Amino acid sequence: MSSQKNIESLQIEARVFPPPVDFAAKAHIKSFEELEALRAEASADPEAFWARLAESELHWFKKWDDVLKWEPPHAQWFVGGKINISYNCLDRHLSTWRRNKAALIWEGEAGETRTLTYQQLHTEVCRFANVLKQMGVVKGDRILLGQVVVNLVRNALDAMAQTPQTRRRIVIRSHSGANTVTISIRDYGSGLPADDEPRLFEPYFTTKPEGTGIGLTIVHRIIDAHEGTIEARNNSDGGATFWFNLAYLPQHEGVAARAT
Ligand SMILES: Nc1ncnc2c1ncn2[C@@H]1O[C@H](COP(=O)(O)OP(=O)(O)OP(=O)(O)O)[C@@H](O)[C@H]1O
Ligand SMILES: [Mg+2]
Is the pTM of this model over 0.90? Predict the structure, then answer.
């Protein structure tokens, strides 16, 4: 790599604009010296610095085991810790002086304004969470759960390769129960391979010439990681149905659980 300078910046700004004194007095970091001291602390021991702030500024349902796991190129922070962002933003302030303080000041295009205190915002959040809960929202990783559906739909399509056009159909249903939501994917294909049902979720089990046999293994792992269950069976009128169950948000781990 060349060390030659190809771009010269002519815009050098060295002026400093100090904030008004009364503004600075109310700020979290009140002076340049305070900022420099923080910076020095952070660069001397980044892990200790962030651990100190995480401890003093946030509420943890479970404290972390390791501040940082750094296995290049992967960095994991606060490994083993349990935290909820909504609880930190809202709930924990409800028992303090902030309860009746403005949490959100909204101003619309036409100049109309609306102010919500922490308490009012919490009520609104709970109301909205309740709507989501009624719609069957569960705790989960959207991308991973999307992958589950994609893998199951792909299998359903493969299974229907020989199905006449008029019968070729995939039906995806969701059903909200008292504590769980169930998603089912039903096809009108060949049906599950006879006698091999117990092996469906085994790694490398495939009946397809080009198959790798890991689609359902991945599905099973993801559902396991979400503490859910997955099953499959043949339909009485042809084809197969796969369905999985996921539990609603557990208590204290998300807004929906606290909805009133
Ligand atoms: N909807 C279905 N209908 C009938 N058989 C199915 C269905 N879904 C899965 N299977 C059976 O389960 C086997 C394993 O599926 P899995 O998704 O794990 O691997 P695969 O589809 O063969 O390959 P890939 O790793 O590319 O997904 C399939 O080869 C097939 O025999
Ligand atoms: Mg597959």
Answer: no
